[in-house]
Amino acid sequence: MPKHVAVIMDGNGRWAKKRFLPRVAGHVKGVELVREMVRACLERGIDYLTLFAFSSENWRRPQEEVSLLMQLFVKALEQEIEKLNSNGVRLRVVGDLQRFEPRLQLLIQKGEEKTANNTRLNLTIAANYGGRWDIMQGLNCMLAAQPEKSGDWTEADLEPWLSMSFAPEPDLFIRTGGEERISNFLLWQLAYSELYFTPSLWPDFNTLEFDKAIASYQQRERRFGRTSEQLSGKPDA
Ligand code: IPE
Ligand code: IPE
Ligand code: MG
User: Fold this and answer.
1) pLDDT at residue number 80
2) Which letter does DSSP use for residue 51 in this model?
3) Annotated catalytic residue 58
4) In the chain, which ranges are continuous DSSP H helix?
5) What is the pTM of this model?
6) Chain mean position to CA 162
7) Which residue of the set 47, 58, 85, 157 is catalytic?
8) Is 140 a catalytic residue?
9) Which numbered ligand comes closest to the C-alpha of 65?
C-alpha cells in the first residue's frame, strides 16, 4: 500500500456540462467523492491523503464559480469535521490561507485544532495552494530563521519550512479528468512519486478506480536513481 496518496481532483466542470448542469453541480458531486476517498483510505490503511481542492490560479475563474466554491468549502467544513474527528482523521489545510474570508479561515483553524490528536489518517486539503508559492514561502521562512547564515543552503534546510513537511513525499499521485499535467501542485514533493492519470472525471471516480490506481502503483519498480539489479540484490549489482 502507498503511505501517501496525492490527488488532483479534476473534471467536475466537464462532468456537469455533460449533464447540462451548471459547473457547480459537478463540484457538489465532487465533495461526495472526497467522502468516499477518505473512507477508502481508512479502510486500506493509507496514512496520508492530500487533495488539491483549489489552486492559486483558480482565482482566475469567473467570480461566481469562485464564490460558490468557497461556499462549498465552508459547508463541507461545517458538516464534516465531527465525522472526520470520530473516524480518527486529522485535517490540515495547506496553502496561502490569508486570501480566504475570515469565517473560512476560522473554520479551518477550528477543524485543524479539533482533529489535531488524530492519527488514523492525515487528510490534507490544498487550498489556494501552488507548488511555486510553497517553495518561495519556504525559502523566505528559511532565510528569516537564520539571518546570519549566508550561502551553503541544502535541501534539508528548506524541507522543514515547506507546507507538507509533516508528511513523507507522496508515493502515488493520481490526476483524474484526463489532463496529464501537474498544474502547479506539489512541485518539490512529487520528485519521485509514481504518476497515475485517468480519463475518469472526478465525480465518476470511485473505489474500484482507486484500487486500479493502487494496483498500477504496486507494479512499478521505484528505483530512485539506482539500477534494477541493485534493487533485486542480484550478484552483478
Ligand atoms: C476540478 O474540476 C475542481 C477545481 C479546480 C476546483 P474543474 O472545475 O477543473 O473541472 P473541469 O476541468 O473544468 O472539467
Ligand atoms: C487543478 O485543476 C487544480 C485543482 C484540481 C484544484 P485545474 O482544472 O484548475 O487545472 P488546469 O487549469 O486544467 O491545469
Ligand atoms: Mg479542470
Assistant:
1) 97
2) E
3) yes
4) 12-18, 23-44, 63-86, 102-114, 131-145, 155-158, 207-218, 228-232
5) 0.96
6) 14
7) 58
8) no
9) 1
Ligand 1 atom nearest the C-alpha of 54 is 6
Closest to 27 (Cα-Cα) out of 59, 67, 56, 60: 67
Q: Please tell me what DSSP assigns to residue 56.
A: G
184 lines ligand 2 (CB under 6 A): no
Which CATH code for domain 4-134+171-220?
3.40.1180.10
Largest CA distance in the chain: 63
Q: Which residues partner with 197 through β-bridges?
A: 175
CA distance 181 to 168: 22
First-to-final CA distance of the chain = 27
Q: Using CA positions, which residue lies closest to atom 6 of ligand 1?
A: 54
The pLDDT of residue 236: 63
| Average pLDDT of the residues in 116-142 | 98
**Tens digit of pLDDT for each residue in 165-209?**
999 999 999 999 999 999 999 999 999 999 999 999 999 999 999
CA of 24 from ligand 1 middle (Å) equals 10
> Nearest bound ligand to CA 23?
1
| Ligand with minimal distance to 14 CA | 1
What residue type is assigned to position 212 of the chain?
K
Report CA(144)–ligand 2 centroid distance (Å): 32
User: Atom of ligand 2 at shortest distance to CA of 52?
Assistant: 6
- Positive or negative: CA dihedral 214, 216, 222, 225: negative
Q: Which residues contact 190 (CB under 8 A, 6 or more apart)?
A: 6, 169, 170, 173, 182
